[in-house]
Amino acid sequence: MENIQEKILMQIVYEGFELSETPIEGKKAIGIWVNGVIFFDEAPRKMGYSSAKKYCRNFRKSKPYPSLGTKSDWKMLFKRGTLGMFNSLCETVGLKPIDFDTPYWFEQNPKNCYLAFGVDRRLWSVSLEIYPLYCVRPVMPYPLDK
Question: What's the CA angle centered on 80, arms 9 and 56, to 5 degrees?
Answer without folding.
Answer: 65
